Amino acid sequence: MTRLPWHPLLITACYLVFNVADTGVDPLAAGRAFLVALGFTALLQVAASVALRDGERGATLATAILLLAIFWVPIAGIADGYGRLPAVEAAVLAILVAAALILAARLVLRRGGFGGAPTGFLNAFSVALAVVVGAAALTAPGWAAGSSSSPRPADVPRASDAPDIFVLLVDGHPRPDSLLEQTGHDIGPFVDALMDVGFDVAPEARSNYRWTGASLYSILEMTLAASSAPEIASGGAGAPEIRSALADNAAFHTLRAHGYRVTAIGPPYEHVALRSADEFIDGGYLNSFECHLIRRTVVGPLAWAVSPSLVGDPRRGGVTQSLDEARAIAAAESEQPRFVWVHLPVPHIPVLWDAEGRAVDIAHGSDCAPQGIPVPDAADMRAAYHASLDHADGLVLEAIRDILTSASEPPVILLLSDHGGHLVGSAPDHRQPVHWRDSFAAFLAVHAPGEERPLPDDVSLANVLPSLFNAYLGAGIPLVDDRTFATDGTEAPEP
Questions:
Q1: I need a labelling partner for 135 at 20 to 30 A (CA). Which of 124, 158, 268, 340 fits?
Q2: Would you say the pTM of this structure is higher than 0.85?
Q3: Range of the domain at 131
Q4: Cα→Cα distances 56→5, 42, 44, 152, 315, Å
Q5: How does pLDDT run across 455-490, given as a tens digit for each residue?
Q6: Is the CB of residue 290 less than 8 Å from the CB of residue 307?
Q7: Looking at residue 200, which CATH number applies to its domain?
């Protein structure tokens, strides 16, 4: 049994489990990566065994290649001057890579150069590695932070006038006045088009926080993170804590108590993917865990060298797929009112399209792009951002029109960003008006049938859902102060 070479598959599995624990993602987010990585490892082992006409030597060559794939990026990063590993770790990695190269060369060039393939040793090593990684993973916070929320109440009758509610979150979309101030780009035609189909645009809407995790907490928990979750407010919480806090949120509890079915269409950002919804739909992106693996292995440099679109296309396709899923939900009949949460990773960088909607692959800002790729010229980057933003806005506007057309009853539609555009670039000083608006000036437009301006012009995101739930469901949720907070958790009052 010890001569059966299982070490390539087990080492691959250990590497994946380690990264799940290290990143703190929901284990469900890693399912596709496990299937692809283990399938590739199996094919690599078979191919190497056929090429060397020896199963044990083929498995040893496969393990050597896997080690090279895993350690290539950190070693190359140090060699190119952008690696951040301490010297001791770098030396260990260099030794492992050198050993893998020597092992691969001797197996290929000198049959039996080691007195036969070291299958027994590598099997034992992989088992020991599995024990260590498994023990570490079981104690990691990511496994304990579940993706489930409290169960929905049974047999809750539908409110006679409860509308479907669609939330389209456009990540990092700047408020029109802030965008015009900072870059000179005018999205007035997009705003006018929204108003033409019945939207009210809040000209002074603000986020309570300048980063996604805290901002989504304030939206869904319908309160300020500074008082109820200070670690999230200050940016000190890790991905498992953020995911756990968002999973059991007050908005979902309120909706379920009023008979709603909650659907979330997943973004690429796994730490804020709302898998606790009654229905979670994969948006079709390469998620952040998959991008983490791509960047940390040789896959990233190879994919980018072959074609940047290999990692860019899934994000473009995810945006269109997510919007199509929202269209399909709106067109389908339902005995329950529906709350549909769609988190779109646009217009947040990376840039995805040009002005004509053609694919653009710029590494800057991409979670999947390899390290060390030069950043484009600032003027070129700004022009590319404007073009991509306009195209993304067009896609969203088209989807909104389709939702309004296909829905049997006029739905409530929220189109909002989670924070400002983050376009200034330098370290924010929130005492300066331009930096304050860059951080907190959120885009917010609402289609609210039957309600006369349901949200004030200067509403903060923590009060958006309470205001709508109070208006349509009679929820009686108290509003909070419209305050803003810097990343360090200190208040950043409007200058």
A1: 268
A2: yes
A3: 7-144
A4: 6, 13, 13, 53, 40
A5: 999 999 999 999 999 999 999 999 999 999 988 778
A6: no
A7: 3.40.720.10
